[in-house]
Design goal:
It is built from ten helices and twelve strands. It is of the alpha/beta class and 278 residues long. Helix 4 packs parallel to helix 5. It is flat, with a radius of gyration of 20 Å.
């Protein structure tokens, strides 16, 4: 039977646990309908259990008019928040405090006269909300994308909380041509950095790696990429039922890690399933 090792830092972070607690409190104490604006966190399994408990997903603020609306952990745009406070009976802000710090940073950089660059994935809800806090700000997730932006002489840089330090360093290298002023506010979340470090360490020591978390989760996908670069047999799954014994043929040590949006119960069920594979 293979030995199972769990990364020193893995699973739900402070921001996700806080958002889940706010949502559970809202469904247990509210007499009316409860909605989340988009998925509360990027974990389809958790989102469907919230739905079963009574916190349904709304794709627009107006779908939740007259009801309780929980603002997702990745943050929302100022206009969405304004609209929510105007039309909803109750607004619960589950935006992670570390994401809020990014909003404050871009607003400050903009007021200081910097052209704002967000190192992150365009289209991701966190990045879109951050961009909306500093009109004119732009995003790039790779050196080539940053070069194509044709930035001016004074650039303020913040980072999507789940980005890797390597990506940040590569983008900074691409834009720092020596002639422009670049001011960095490093907003990578410590929970992300510590999970990536622990995952890399474990992936380099085991025969196979299992990464648990939503396929729509940026930080889980990044963990899977890091593990795959160090361990050929890396498998990104959302739930225990996806495990296939054939993946682990000949593996003596199997490592497990999980994204910041993966609750500990989900990790425990995967570990239990791995142990039962024999
Ligand atoms: Fe917040 Fe960091 Fe988690 S930004 S949601 S504590 S990964």
């Amino acid at each position: 039977m293979a030995t199972i090792r769990i990364a020193d830092k893995a699973g739900a972070c402070y921001g996700v646990e806080r958002a889940l607690e706010l949502a559970w409190n809202a469904v247990s104490s509210s007499s009316g309908d409860v909605y989340t604006l988009g998925p509360l966190i990027h974990n389809p399994r958790v989102v469907s259990s919230l739905d079963a408990l009574g916190a349904h997903e709304a794709s627009t603020v107006d779908e939740a008019a007259g009801a309780t609306l929980i603002l997702r952990s990745h943050g929302v745009t100022p206009s969405e928040e304004e609209r929510a406070r105007a039309v909803c009976r109750n607004v619960i802000d589950a935006t992670c405090p570390f994401v809020k710090k990014v909003h404050v940073a871009v607003e400050r950089l903009m007021h200081e006269g910097y052209e704002v660059l967000v190192v992150g994935e365009k289209g991701h809800p966190e990045v879109e909300a951050t961009l909306a806090h500093a009109p004119g700000a732009r995003a790039a997730s790779a050196p080539d994308e940053a070069r194509e932006l044709d930035l001016g002489g004074k650039v303020g840089v913040v980072v999507q909380t789940t980005q890797s330090l390597e990506t940040l360093a590569a983008v900074l290298d691409a834009i720092d041509d020596g002639s422009r002023e670049v001011k960095l506010v490093n907003t990578i979340c410590e929970a992300t950095a510590s999970r990536q470090e622990a995952a890399a360490q474990l992936a380099s020591e085991v025969d196979a790696m299992v990464v648990i978390g939503g396929r729509n989760s940026a930080n889980t996908t990044r963990l899977a990429e890091i593990c795959a670069s160090l361990c050929d047999k890396t498998f990104h799954i959302e739930m225990a039922e996806e495990l296939d014994a054939a993946w682990f043929a000949g593996a003596e040590v199997i490592g497990v890690t999980a994204g910041a949006s993966t609750p500990s119960a989900q990790i425990a069920s995967v570990v239990e399933a791995l142990e039962s594979l024999g």
